[in-house]
Design a protein that fits this description.
The complex is a heterodimer of chains A (about 300) and B (about 350). Chain A is an all-alpha fold and about 300 residues long. Chain A is built from ten helices and no strands. The longest helix of chain A is centred in the C-terminal third of the chain and has 37 residues. Classes of the chains: A mainly alpha (about 300), B mainly alpha (about 350). At the A-B interface, helix 4, helix 5, helix 8, helix 9 and helix 10 of A face helix 1, helix 6, helix 7, helix 12 and helix 13 of B.
């Protein structure tokens, strides 16, 4: 991507600009970006936007269908569930648990894991490549199974589910960072700047970090979508968020027995979850291909 | 090749050792009495002291670990805290049920995934490719429990074509021999074997399809990307230049090369599938390992959690190592790289 300015200088856009241009070009990616921005907004301000409280019951309006159907009520835009709780409000409140919490967990896990991974990579010899191999095999055990075991030890609950998911993702970040850095360490440009006598902090932050961004972003988006799915799955199994909490997975679990009579109670949280996940995945894919294209230039 | 197999076996043994260490330490990590957590015998039981001695709890931690291993290999996995049944007896019936479901789903994914990917790749960025890419992206993003609910609601409740949950209609009264329903029907001596088989297959359609979706779309995506990459390489151009037809180029040059990249990810697909089995079995009331594990976490049935974890994780590790070995055996280039390191 080149711009001609006044002096016909050729210059490359910065990574952020490049990413923005790529997102701008692809309609699907742009839609995903806007959806995620909206979700972030709802996560932050959902309780303010919601017309009612998450657990506020309306005895006169049990199991109302969405407002556009014949029996709907305009007060409850997306209908109410069997306990007379407004679905719109519940979904708006729930974004905090299903979107905000995984984001927070993955960010914390990412910071800890990447720091530890960078330290492990710079002190080669502490953990040799066979240990790496071993860890790689061990972490082929899926994250949900590991999270289940941690929950079995510390007990069910939303906070515990978040802790479990975080604990599962820290080693994955560690491993991904370590692999990426070690791969870079043997390349000529790193050796060149080592010969220049730079400090190891400079080597990490200014020399290697810009070149492993792709690996880190890939790992981050994969972990984020897996964390959303895992927290919702744990909520669904009744091991994460507990019943009255408006977590989307837990809401789906409640709707199992009512799906035939009140299908919207099942359809809406699932749809919200689906849209969230597809946006995260599309964003991850676009970011990856952008960074890939940038590397190849 | 032998070196690779030996090395993989070494890795397998070390990871299994670590896993057994983890499973052993769970008895201490779980809240409560470690003897009860390991054996399922309550402290009020008259055999409590004998069991504690048998499991080495009067000695040091290392001899406890060895007696744990001894119990593990003599299939004395303790009693379930819920119903007092021996854990291993229960596993023997539940594991085949899980295996049946996952093997069928994996077979479906392997059968459909790569061909769809190849079709998408040869129509790169044409409508067919876009449709397949769209479906694979949505299949990858759909929460599996929601998809299960939707399919149940649509196919079982609204249309009424398929049963909602369970393994088979209990009226058929198939004796429980192995736990895997198809094998049991095969072994059963019932005059209605044919109808029973049909009924069991009907029960199986929905869970298998839902379970197969995630590995299927994963394999489709991987195959598509690998094929697109290979199609750009020079030897494909060379093959066309030699005058080979498109089919020949595709099946002799492109697909074998593309599959090399896909093969190593079969284990990833499998471990995703096992994760989803846990959820699917709960939704479809399938009497397998996953449902049992989830239920035992509610009920804090620690001997069961310990055993189910060990079994599921070693299954995944085994498939992982087998995939690596197969990958190295099938593709000499990979073997050379593995030998070089």
């Amino acid at each position: 991507m080149r711009h001609n300015d006044l002096y016909y200088e050729e210059r490359n856009p910065s990574p952020l600009q490049q990413a923005w241009l790529d997102f701008y070009e692809k309609p699907l990616a742009r839609a995903a970006l806007y959806t995620l921005a909206l979700l972030l907004f709802i996560t932050l301000f959902g309780p303010v936007l919601a017309p009612f409280g998450a657990n506020e019951q309306f005895i006169d309006a049990l199991s109302l269908p969405p407002a556009w159907s014949n029996h709907g009520d305009l007060r409850f835009l997306l209908g109410t569930d069997s306990l007379g709780r407004d679905m719109t409000s519940r979904i708006l409140h729930g974004a905090r648990f299903t979107f905000g919490l995984p984001l927070l967990v993955v960010c914390i896990a990412g910071i800890l894991g990447i720091t530890a991974g960078a330290m492990a990579a710079m002190n080669v010899g502490v953990a040799s490549s066979s240990v790496q191999h071993l860890l790689g095999v061990l972490f082929s055990i899926p994250s949900l199974l590991l999270a289940l075991i941690i929950i079995a030890v510390i007990g069910p609950g939303l906070v515990n589910a978040a802790i479990a998911i975080g604990l599962v993702f820290i080693p994955q970040f560690l491993l991904a960072t370590r692999t990426a850095i070690i791969e870079e360490l043997n390349k000529d440009y790193v050796i060149a700047s080592r010969l220049n006598g730079v400090s190891s902090a400079y080597l990490i932050f200014a020399v290697i970090l810009p070149n492993i961004v792709k690996a880190l972003v890939t790992q981050f988006t994969l972990a984020f979508s897996a964390a959303i799915l895992d927290i919702a799955a744990l909520g669904f199994l009744g091991l994460g968020a507990q019943s009255p909490a408006p977590e989307w997975g837990a809401m789906l679990a409640l709707s199992v027995e009512l799906a035939y009579n009140t299908p919207w109670v099942m359809a809406l949280p699932g749809l919200a979850l689906f849209i969230t996940l597809i946006s995260v995945n599309v964003m991850g894919e676009t970011l990856r291909s952008t960074l890939q294209a940038r590397m190849e230039h | 090749m032998i070196r690779i197999i030996l090395r993989q076996l070494g890795v397998l043994f070390i990871t299994l050792f670590l896993l057994s260490l983890l499973a052993f330490s769970l008895a201490y990590l779980f809240p409560g009495d470690p003897v009860t957590n390991a054996s399922g015998v309550l402290a009020t039981d008259i055999h409590y002291n004998a069991i504690a001695t048998a499991r080495g709890f009067d000695q040091g931690i290392i001899s406890q670990y060895f007696s744990y291993l001894r119990h593990l290999f003599s299939f004395d996995w303790g009693l379930s805290l819920q119903d007092g049944e021996p854990v291993w007896q229960e596993f023997k019936f539940r594991f085949p049920a899980t295996l049946e479901l996952s093997v069928l789903a994996m077979a479906l994914a392997l059968l459909l995934g790569p061909p769809l990917g190849v079709i998408a790749a040869i129509n790169y960025q044409k409508p067919i490719d876009q449709v397949i890419t769209f479906f694979s992206l949505s299949g990858y993003s759909i929460p599996v429990f929601w998809m299960a609910q939707l399919t149940i609601l649509f196919f079982a409740v609204v249309l009424g074509w398929l049963p909602i949950a369970g393994q088979i209609n209990p009226l058929f009264d198939i004796p429980l021999v192995s736990g895997s329903i198809l094998v049991d029907i095969w072994l059963a001596d019932s005059p209605y074997r044919g109808i029973a088989l049909l009924n069991a297959l009907q029960h199986m359609i929905l869970p298998v399809i839902v379970l197969a979706t995630v590995p299927l779309v994963l394999l489709t995506r991987l195959t598509r990307n690998a094929c697109v990459e290979v199609l750009r390489l020079n030897f494909v151009k060379g093959a066309y230049a030699r005058g080979l037809s498109t089919t020949e180029v595709l099946f002799k040059h492109v697909v074998p090369n593309a599959m090399q990249q896909v093969t190593q990810h079969i284990s990833t697909a499998f471990s995703l599938l096992i994760t989803n089995t846990l959820i699917i079995e709960v939704i479809f009331s399938w009497p397998g390992l996953g449902r049992w594990l989830v239920r035992s976490i509610y009920e804090r049935d620690y001997p069961v959690i310990q055993g189910a974890l060990l079994l599921l994780a070693s299954l995944i590790l085994l498939v992982n190592v087998m995939t690596t070995v197969f990958h190295a055996w099938r593709y000499p280039r990979v073997r050379r790289e593995l030998n070089a390191t």
